[in-house]
Amino acid sequence: MLFRNRFLLLLALAALLAFLSLSLQFFHLIPVSVAKNGGSSKSRKRIMPDPVTEPPGADPVYEALLYCNLPSVAERSMEGHAPHHFKLVSVHVFIRHGDRYPLYVIPKTKRPEIDCTLVANRKPYHPKLEAFVGHMSKGSGASFESPLHSLPLFPNHPLCEMGELTQTGVVQHLQNGQLLRDIYLKKHKLLPSDWSTDQLYLETTGKSRTLQSGLALLYGFLPDFDWKKIYFRHQPSALFCSGNCYCPVRNQYLEKEQRRQYLLRLKNSQLERTYGDMAKIVDVPTKQLRAANPIDSMLCHFCHNVSFPCTRNGCIDMEHFRVIKTHQIEDERDRREKKLYLGYSLLGAHPILNQTIGRMQRAAEGRKEEIFALYSAHDVTLSPVLSALGLMEAKFPRFAARLIFELWQDREQPREHSVRILYNGVDVTFHTSFCQDHHKRSPKPMCPLENLVRFVRRDMFVALGSGSTSYYDACHREGF
Ligand SMILES: *[C@@H]1O[C@H](CO)[C@@H](O)[C@H](O)[C@H]1NC(C)=O
Ligand SMILES: *[C@@H]1O[C@H](CO)[C@@H](O)[C@H](O)[C@H]1NC(C)=O
C-alpha cells in the first residue's frame, strides 16, 4: 500500500513536470487581464495549445485536445480495408454529434461568445459548407418523423444557443461523411447511384445538434441528395432502446455507478479545493458551482481558444481545468476497475446491438434494405456501446466520434460473413470481447458474424454473471 502511494506520488510528480514543460512549449500561459465583470472579449488572451507534436501519456490537456477533435488535425483511417475477395455488404455508423456550445453556464460569468452561424471566411472550413447550407435551406418537413420537423436543419445563431452545434461541429461531420463516401461509395460501391429510400436507415435523437450532425454527415456522404428519398426517424431514448427501454436492473447498476463516482470525488481533496477556489472567484456556493458542471463550459473555452472567464475576484485558469480534467481521467480508470458501468452498459446497449445484428443478418441473407444505417447520437449512447463490446481502453467519445460496424462477404466462401469494428478510424475488431483471440486462430483479418450474434444473443448476459440468458431475465433479476 505504502509502495503504491509512493508510486502514485511519483507518477503525479512526473505528470506535473511533463505538464509544466509542455505548458512552456505549447501554451500561451500569459496571465489574463483581470477586468471588471469579466472584461471585454477583445482584451482576453487565448488559450489554444498547438497540437503539432504528440506529448506523452495521459496528459490532461492533451486528452482535452483530442476531445475537441479539431478538423485541422489529419487522421489515418482504416475503414473499408479488406482483402480483394471480400465484398462490402452493409455499414452501420454510430456518431456522436459534433462540437457544440455548452449545456451549462458557469454562474455569474459571461458565457463564451461563439458564433453559430455558418460562414465561409471562418475556420474551420469545409469546401462543401456553403453548398450544405444551400441544400438544407431547401429541406422538406416530409423527410422527418415528428417531432424532428420542428428543428432547424443547420445552426444559425450569431450567439450560439445552449447545446447548439457550431461550425466546427458541422465541418467535423461533413468531413466524416466525405471520408465514408470516398471509402464506401467510390471504392466499395456500397450503394448504387440510383439508391432508394429503403436502402438507408437514418435515426437521430430529438436535439437539433444530433439531427444537424446527421444531416452534415449524410451531405458529405451523398452530396445533393434528393430530399424525397430521405427519412430520418426520431429516437426518444439516448440509449436507442426503442420499445425495450424498461430495464430495472440497468437502473440499479446506474445508481451504484453514480454512488461510486460520488465517493471517488469525495476522496480527491485537490479537486474539492479547486471547486472551492473557482466558487470563490465567481462568488457562489461551491455546491452551486459544481452543479453547474463547469468543465463542460471550460471545454468550450478550451476547444475554441477563448480564455476562461474572469471576475473581479480573479480568473478561472488552466490549473483549474487541469485538475478537473485529471480527475475525469482518474474517474474513467476507476470506472473500468469497478465494473458497475459495465453492467449498466451490457443492459443499456443490448437493444441497439440486437437491432444492429438483426439488420446485418437480413443483409447477409441478401436483402437490400437498410444497408447503410446511421444513428446520430450522444456520448451517453456511444460510451455504453463501447463498454459493452469490451472496448475498455477506448477513449471517451470525443466530438464527432464515429463507431462503425462493417459487414463483409467472402466471395470465395459466399455463405460466410464477417464483421469489422472501427472506432474513429481505428480497427478495434480484435479488441472486442467477442473476438479477442480470433485472429490468432484464423488467417482472416475479420471476425465471423456468428461471434457477434452469439455475443449479443447470449454471452452479453453471461458476462453479467447472473445466470440469465435473455434480456428480459437479466433486466428483471431479483435480489441484485
Ligand atoms: C489561440 O490564440 C492565440 C492568441 O490569440 C494565438 O496566438 C494562437 O495562434 C491561437 N491558436 C489557435 C490554434 O488558433
Ligand atoms: C432482438 O431482435 C429481435 C429481432 O431481430 C426481436 O424479435 C427481439 O424482440 C429483440 N430483443 C430485444 C430485447 O431487443
UniProtKB/TrEMBL annotation:
Keywords: Glycoprotein, Golgi apparatus, Hydrolase, Membrane, Signal-anchor, Transmembrane, Transmembrane helix
Source superkingdom: Eukaryota
Subcellular location: Golgi apparatus membrane
Gene Ontology MF terms in the entry: phosphatase activity
CDD domains noted in UniProt: HP_HAP_like
Recorded GO CC terms: Golgi membrane
GO biological process, one term: glycosaminoglycan biosynthetic process
Pfam families xref list: His_Phos_2 (PF00328)
Membrane-related topology note: Single-pass type II membrane protein
Catalytic activity, reaction form: 3-O-[beta-D-GlcA-(1->3)-beta-D-Gal-(1->3)-beta-D-Gal-(1->4)-beta-D-2-O-P-Xyl]-L-seryl-[protein] + H2O = 3-O-(beta-D-GlcA-(1->3)-beta-D-Gal-(1->3)-beta-D-Gal-(1->4)-beta-D-Xyl)-L-seryl-[protein] + phosphate
Family: Belongs to the histidine acid phosphatase family.
Function as written in the Swiss-Prot or TrEMBL entry: Responsible for the 2-O-dephosphorylation of xylose in the glycosaminoglycan-protein linkage region of proteoglycans thereby regulating the amount of mature glycosaminoglycan (GAG) chains. Sulfated glycosaminoglycans (GAGs), including heparan sulfate and chondroitin sulfate, are synthesized on the so-called common GAG-protein linkage region (GlcUAbeta1-3Galbeta1-3Galbeta1-4Xylbeta1-O-Ser) of core proteins, which is formed by the stepwise addition of monosaccharide residues by the respective specific glycosyltransferases.
Subunit structure: Interacts with B3GAT3; the interaction increases the 2-phosphoxylose phosphatase activity of PXYLP1 during completion of linkage region formation in a B3GAT3-mediated manner.
PANTHER family xrefs: 2-PHOSPHOXYLOSE PHOSPHATASE 1 (PTHR11567:SF110), ACID PHOSPHATASE-RELATED (PTHR11567)
Official protein name in the record: 2-phosphoxylose phosphatase 1
Organism: Desmodus rotundus
